[in-house]
């Protein structure tokens, strides 16, 4: 089936179409200023630079970037909650946060200028997807500490579009709004879009009853096959939007109508792809971990932040006229974070809940699959010998309780299956706990 034709435009031609040389100059100036700021104002980063034997004067431009030490989620853990800020807390107008493997939230502060920067980047993303004045935009990403809702919401204001802040969940109401209010743009996770499509099909609501021209989907890995399915089922044009709380939220990059590669706003977020083993920058087109330096952020700027997302970078000019570096769709992570229906979940969070129950042993696996296009998480855990002899009713009771506790910690409902003692696999080396069957 031919893909839906869509009219798109460039929001900021100066920023998005500059030559490689110009871009490198802009990046260099901003990098040098950011390094100085970080060294002067952020004790943890000053310490890292001191330990690496680097002073701000050593960084004269973009070619010196690899001299700088990396940052990582552990810097958020160790400096929780406000120790990563480069401005006084009073200059922060908003906090967002995402949960992390470290057990502590990664707290990110935005100054007024950071909110303006975020809005501008999202205007670039949304213009790239054809959103402009007069459009009616259904935002089904969660509003709150998660960045998915409020980011695009502010961009709608600047674009002159009308935001409908539906937020996540309540599928019948989402469908009611889609049918009755006739929004022409939707933003949510790709898996939720497929779920909405399936529910609509069950209700006999066809794409012709909707008015959607485009969807801007992200916050979790998704394939081109899934994009095709969404476009076919919903009759819209699907765009991939990428971002992470630590760097900005959504709007670090977004695909255009010409290819599946994601244009990165590299004048603000300098991308590198590095070898996961050695940390050495990799050449164009090689697969590695994505690293960003958010050189214009005021609240929580980061230098060489390792996202652990796996991708490749490309530098050629795109048919759309933009010259920004582009990255391949992110389909995996080098670390162990699971993204279930757009929510970050860590095996360690689940383990921590289970270990408070005497009825189970610390032998478990997590299986993730897709049912009706929605991610489903099943946790199989072994019962203790003593509990194993109890009645089926008691077993079901504990399964229910565990599911409730896990949902309240992670925000995701898990199916719990209590298994016989010693029935799950063991390992002499690293144990494989997660069986992700979604992308098979
Ligand atoms: O997911 C921000 C966001 C909201 C992006 C809405 C797009 C749309 P976090 O919760 O901090 O922020 O999670 C960031 O999600 O490091 C990736 O692993 C993954 N991710 C985000 N966008 C994509 C995408 C938001 N388009 C983590 N494709 C990132 C694949 C994505 N993975």
What keyword list fits this structure?
single chain; Rossmann fold; binds 5'-O-[hydroxy(phenylacetyl)phosphoryl]adenosine; 440 residues; 9-stranded mixed sheet; 30% helix; 4-stranded antiparallel sheet; 12 helices
Helices and strands in order:
Layout: H1 13-16, H2 20-41, H3 43-52, H4 73-78, E1 94-98, E2 106-110, H5 112-128, E3 136-139, H6 150-159, E4 162-164, H7 171-180, E5 185-188, H8 190-202, E6 214-218, H9 224-234, E7 237-244, E8 249-255, E9 262-264, E10 269-274, E11 288-294, E12 305-311, E13 313-314, E14 326-327, E15 332-333, E16 338-340, E17 343-345, H10 347-354, E18 360-371, E19 374-383, H11 385-388, H12 392-410, E20 414-419, E21 434-436
Parallel strand pairs: 3-4, 3-5, 5-6, 6-7, 18-21, 19-20
Antiparallel strand pairs: 1-2, 7-8, 8-9, 9-14, 10-11, 11-12, 12-15, 13-14, 16-17, 18-19
Helix pairs in contact: 2-3, 5-6, 8-9, 10-12
Overall shape: it is globular
Write down the CATH topology of the largest domain: Rossmann fold
N- to C-terminal distance: 24 Å
The kinds of small molecule bound in this structure are: 5'-O-[hydroxy(phenylacetyl)phosphoryl]adenosine
CATH 2nd-level architecture of the largest domain? 3-Layer(aba) Sandwich
CATH homologous superfamily label of the largest domain: ANL, N-terminal domain
Structural class computed from helices and strand pairing: alpha/beta
Descriptive report:
- This protein has helices spanning 13-16, 20-41, 43-52, 73-78, 112-128, 150-159, 171-180, 190-202, 224-234, 347-354, 385-388, 392-410, and strands at residues 94-98, 106-110, 136-139, 162-164, 185-188, 214-218, 237-244, 249-255, 262-264, 269-274, 288-294, 305-311, 313-314, 326-327, 332-333, 338-340, 343-345, 360-371, 374-383, 414-419, 434-436.
- It is α/β, with parallel strands linked by helices and 440 residues long.
- The chain has 2 domains: 1-335, Rossmann fold, CATH 3.40.50.12780; 337-436, ANL, C-terminal domain (GMP Synthetase, Chain A, domain 3, 2-Layer Sandwich), CATH 3.30.300.
- A hairpin with a 7-residue loop joins strand 1 and strand 2.
- Helix 10 packs across helix 12 (392-410).
- The radius of gyration is 23 Å and the shape is globular.
- The chain starts with 12 loop residues before the first helix and ends with a strand.
- The mean pLDDT is 93.
- 5'-O-[hydroxy(phenylacetyl)phosphoryl]adenosine binds next to strand 7, strand 8 and strand 12.
- 5'-O-[hydroxy(phenylacetyl)phosphoryl]adenosine is lined by residues 98, 141, 147-148, 218-221, 240-245, 249-250, 307, 309, 330, 333, 339, 344.
């Amino acid at each position: 089936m031919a893909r839906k034709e869509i009219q798109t435009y460039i929001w900021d031609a100066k920023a998005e179409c500059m030559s490689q040389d110009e871009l490198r100059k802009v990046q260099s100036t901003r990098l040098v200023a950011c390094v100085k700021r970080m060294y002067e104002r952020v004790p943890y980063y000053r310490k890292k630079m001191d330990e690496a034997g680097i002073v701000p004067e050593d960084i004269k431009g973009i070619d010196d970037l690899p001299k700088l030490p990396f940052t990582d989620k552990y810097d958020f853990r160790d400096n929780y909650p406000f120790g990563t800020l480069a401005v006084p807390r009073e200059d922060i107008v908003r906090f967002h946060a995402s949960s992390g493997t470290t057990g502590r939230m990664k707290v990110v502060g935005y100054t007024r200028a950071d909110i303006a920067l975020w809005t501008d980047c999202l205007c670039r993303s949304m213009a790239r997807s054809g959103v402009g004045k007069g459009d009616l935009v259904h935002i089904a990403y969660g509003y709150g500490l998660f960045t998915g809702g409020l980011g695009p919401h502010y961009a709608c204001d600047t674009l002159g579009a009308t935001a409908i802040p539906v937020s996540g969940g309540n599928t019948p109401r989402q469908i009611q709004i889609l049918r009755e209010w006739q929004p022409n743009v939707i933003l949510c996770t790709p898996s939720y879009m497929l779920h909405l499509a399936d529910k609509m099909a069950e209700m006999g609501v066809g794409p012709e009853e909707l008015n959607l021209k485009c969807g801007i989907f992200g916050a979790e890995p998704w394939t081109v096959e899934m994009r095709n399915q969404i476009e076919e089922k919903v009759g819209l044009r699907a765009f991939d939007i990428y971002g992470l709380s630590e760097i900005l939220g959504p709007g670090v990059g977004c695909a255009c109508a010409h290819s599946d590669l994601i244009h990165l706003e590299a004048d603000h977020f300098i991308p590198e792809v590095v070898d996961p083993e050695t940390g050495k920058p990799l050449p164009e087109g090689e697969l590695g971990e994505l690293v960003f330096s958010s050189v214009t952020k005021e609240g929580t700027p980061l230098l060489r932040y390792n996202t652990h997302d796996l991708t490749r970078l490309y530098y050629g000019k795109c048919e759309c006229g933009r010259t920004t570096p582009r990255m391949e769709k992110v389909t995996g992570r080098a670390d162990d974070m699971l993204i279930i229906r757009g929510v970050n979940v860590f095996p360690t969070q689940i383990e921590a809940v289970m270990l408070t129950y005497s009825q189970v042993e610390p032998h478990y696996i997590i299986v993730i699959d897709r049912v009706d296009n929605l991610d489903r998480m099943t946790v199989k855990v072994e019962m203790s010998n003593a509990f194993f002899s109890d009645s089926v009713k008691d077993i079901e009771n504990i399964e229910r309780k565990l599911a409730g506790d896990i949902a309240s910690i992670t925000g995701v409902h898990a199916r719990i299956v209590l298994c016989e003692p010693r029935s799950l696999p063991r390992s002499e080396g690293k144990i494989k706990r997660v069986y992700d069957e979604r992308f098979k």
